[in-house]
Amino acid sequence: MMHEKSVKLIVLCLMLTQWCLSPAVTADSSFEDNDFAEFEDFDSDDDFVEIQQSNVGPQLSPAEEIPTLTEKGLKRDHSILEDDDDDGIVEDEDEFFKDEEEFEGFDSPDKEDDDLDQKTEPKLTVAKIPMHFRTHWDSYWMEMLMLAGLMVYFINFFAGKAKNANLANRWFNTHRALLDDNFVLVGDDGKMDNEKNGLIKESESLYTLWCSGRTCCEGMLVELKMIKRQDVVSLMAGLMRPQQDQIHIKIDLTRGVMDTFVFFVGTKRTVTKVFKEYSDLSKYCTQVSKPEIRYNVPNGLSVLSEIPEATSAILENRVIITLTKYQQYIDYLHISDQFSGPVQQEDANTLKQPDTKPILWAGFNLPREGNMEAVKPLLVLIFYLMERLKTYRMSKEGKQKAERNRLRVEEEFLKSTHAARAEAAAQRREEKRKQEKERVMAEDDPEKQRRWEMKEQKRQAKKKAPKMKRLAVKSL
């Protein structure tokens, strides 16, 4: 701080000396050698003013004025400033402007930046930009696996869909002539104008065909249930549990055409399954032991029979030969006059037996190689059984046994629903008395109302009275 003031004082003294000093001062021998020696003993501006006033002499003429500063004088002054290490040090301009005492209220940019940094420190968020995928394909293995799975699924979908359609059309073209010979209408779709007679596609793995116009039946429904080849998951499940393409033939027989009996023949696995699922088989049939000895059926097939007489009539020589020859394609044959569908859950509110109808059902496996000519005789077997049911009649003993079985089933049903029927009957009687009371009370006849109330009281008293049993005693 003292150095800066010294520099300023020297500059100011230099200017004032050239303009204001008298010749007497300059002529003094004591100041000839050093022009600025007079300022060496002055430490403040006040001392300098006093000395200047004491040395003021007479007024100088214009000719005697102090000459202007020359280049030589400036150089000499500049050398004095540089060599005077004891009096002051010239500082940098930036440091000069940072002096708080000289420049009050002046805020340097560096100081403001420091204060701003101390008050609010900005939070920088650097975005993580991933590298280009072409440089590291291994980072997208999950996406590539999903795309590969989708591609395999769609390829399998279209391939499986086309194969199922091809198998269904092949079966229909193979059996078309036989169906036309036995039915008037083949491929009815339920419309008035049947534009396209043929298979109806229900799904990618299910095709149906409806045929009608034949004696002893109301119609025949053919269902082609293919393996779900369009579904990868179903194909993978089929590796653990093998599946086959199947054809299911359902014929609704005309009432009164066949006698009253229930019959079923099929593979052991199918027999075990349907015996629990269908009510007509569980109520009327029993499983025949050793059917291969009793009815000559091939090994691997089981028989459910209600009337042995009827079972022997159905499993005649021609049918046994067909079952033996085409055993690998046969799943089941179901004949019943009491078919009512799957077993229904017990419901206390059910007061009526389910409706029944006579049916002829059959299920066959289709060849894996797609040769539909191999299963054509099985459709011929169905038509033969239809004609056989129309002409066959049981003996008197067989009909009586079938009648007793139906009465037994009806009694079991009535027993199981006795409580529900009694409750329903009581509710109907109560509703009837309520209506009668409303009718009597609506009339303007007090005598009639009184008689009705007396009648009701007697009924209530009789209902509450203990019941007594009357015994008849013979007189001696």
UniProtKB/TrEMBL annotation:
- This protein's major location comes to endoplasmic reticulum
Residues forming coiled coils = none
Signal peptide range equals 1-27
What segments bear the compositional bias annotation Basic and acidic residues? 426-459
Q: Which domain of life is it from?
A: Eukaryota
| Bilayer topology term | Single-pass type I membrane protein
Q: Does the keyword Signal apply?
A: yes
Query: Which GO annotations describe the biological process of this protein?
Result: endoplasmic reticulum calcium ion homeostasis
Which regions are flagged for Basic residues bias? 460-476
Keywords noted in UniProt: Membrane, Signal, Transmembrane, Transmembrane helix
- Where do the record's region annotations for Disordered lie? 100-121, 418-476
Q: Where in the cell is it found?
A: Rough endoplasmic reticulum membrane
List where Acidic residues composition bias occurs. Answer: 100-116
GO molecular-function term, one example from the UniProt record = calcium ion binding
Q: Which GO terms describe its cellular component?
A: rough endoplasmic reticulum membrane
The family classification in the record reads: Belongs to the CCDC47 family.
**Name listed for the protein in its UniProt record:** PAT complex subunit CCDC47
Say which species the protein is native to.
Answer: Glossina pallidipes (Tsetse fly)
